Amino acid sequence: IIGLMAQYNAEAQLIFSVSPVRHTKDGLVQNSLGKAHLITGLHAALNQVNKEPSAPKYFPAYELMMDQLRDYRFYKSDLIHPNDQGEEVVWDFFKDHWIDPELEAVLEQIQSIQQGLAHRPLNPDSQEHRNFVMQLKKRIQNLQRQYPHMTFD
C-alpha cells in the first residue's frame, strides 16, 4: 500500500486508524482482543518504517471514542456506532492535527457541494431546481480545475 501510494503521490501522507465501531457479533471480549491485536500489530509495523518524516502515521479514532468519548451520549441508540456529535468530535480532532488550515475553505466548498448533491427537490422539473443543478455543476467544475483528482458521485 505504501509503495503504491508513493507512486501515485510521493508527497501524500498515509494515515492508519482502527475503527471505533465495536464488533459485538463475537462478543465484547473478542472485540477487545481483536482491537488490541490490531493496534499492537499496526504500531509494530509503523515503528519499523517510522524513521522518515513521510512515514505513515497513526490516527487514534478508536482511542478517542473509547477513552475521551466513552459517555454514551456520543453513540447512536445501538450503543455501538458513533452518533453525529461523536463523529464531529473525531473529525474536528483529525482536522486540527492533520489538515492544513489553508484547506479549510476547500473543505467547506466540498461539504456544501456534497449537501447539494444529497438534496432531494420537491419539484425536480422546476426551473428553480434546474438552476440549482447548473450552479452546482459549475461549482464542481471550478473545484475540479483546481484539484483534478476530485470526483463527485
Walk me through this protein's architecture.
It is a single chain. The chain is mostly helical and 153 residues long. It has two domains: 1-99, 3-Layer(aba) Sandwich (Rossmann fold), CATH 3.40.50; 102-153. Helix content is 57%, strand content 4%.
Entry keywords:
single chain; 153 residues; mainly alpha; Rossmann fold; 2 domains; 2 strands; 57% helix; globular
* Secondary structure category: mainly alpha
CATH C-level label of the largest domain = Alpha Beta
The percentage of residues in β strands lies in under 5%
Shape: globular
Question: What is the ordering of alpha helices and beta strands?
Answer: HEHEHHHH
Radius of gyration, whole Å: 20 Å
Number of continuous helical runs: 6
User: Strand count, sense and closure of the main sheet?
Assistant: 2 strands, parallel
Adjacency order of strands in the biggest sheet: 1-2
CATH architecture call of the largest domain: 3-Layer(aba) Sandwich
Short description:
Helices cover 57% and strands 4% of the residues. The protein is built from six helices and two strands; from the N terminus they run H-E-H-E-H-H-H-H.
Which secondary structure elements does this structure contain, and how are they paired or packed?
Layout: H1 2-8, E1 15-17, H2 28-49, E2 57-59, H3 61-68, H4 84-98, H5 104-118, H6 127-146
